[in-house]
Amino acid sequence: MAKTKYINSMGELTRKDNSLCFRKNGRNIYIPVEGVNEIYCLNEISINTKLLDFIGRNNIIIHFFNYFEGYSGTFYPKDKYNSGKLIVKQVKAFEENRINIAKSIVSGIGRNIYEVLYHYYKHDKKEVKGTIDWIKKEFYSRVDEATNIKEVMAVEGEVWQRFYSEFKVILPEEFMMNKRCKRPPDNPINALISFGNSLLYTKTIATIYKTHLDQRISFLHEPSEGRFSLSLDISEVFKPVIVYKTIFELVNRKILKVEKHFDKKVNYCLLNEEGRNIFIKAFEEKLDSVFVQPKLKRRITYKTAMKLDCYKLIKFIMEDKEFIPFSLKEKC
Hints:
This protein has 332 residues and is α/β, with parallel strands linked by helices. The chain has eleven helices and twelve strands. It starts with a strand and ends in a 13-residue tail after the last helix.
């Protein structure tokens, strides 16, 4: 199984023979490259071009994060999955069918938020009924009636805001959120959301890299310089399933604690190293958790489900087959 390595400490990452060597505090830690497909650098890491050449030849992707635990950028080997035919078709799909794909993505977000909230409704959190009913009675019609991308994104923004408003029911008081604040996060729940979303975004970058899709041509989010906007599109429907379910479980089971796992400064709040390690472990376990995919009639992971969504999009682009993103309820 392909593995992900996380580097939490400051240090230097180099090549040593046919392995990687991470040096910190005068001590060498060797990382065999066999089976490694991604490395996350979550602190200040020194590297050189010799390392990048070695990493590229072994098809390993490296993600870099800044001091505020936000995503800085990714190094990945030169494209080996290029398909000129698909790129042409992807551009054509953007020009002719962008709004339909965007509506499918936003509908998928709403479906998965509904399922997450319904779980809590069934477990005596009846206060979430207002948002559940709104999704069932108004949300889908609002998506269908949207005539442009701006209107689609307005509905998406509303479903997220309604979801955030239910956190007061789902989470303990010390994890309350007055508003969503990203750069930098200003309280523990915002720190968890920002870190989790960044991890999921980079996982999606790595997933798309292994297909023939072009990272730069997106449908819900505006294609723009300086970011892989298609990764934002693909990751959105998985946020309620992977990021938020992980957060709710860690907080409600008191595995993550405000006083123990966060560094609070004047204008920001971040997970400390122990907190990051706890979250990363739970995040990876969620990605690798297994369920039966009814159409394939076999067991797959959420990581595989993300890749299948990429293939669904390719099917739409190349063969005009309906694009329906992953559904937590349907498991496909």
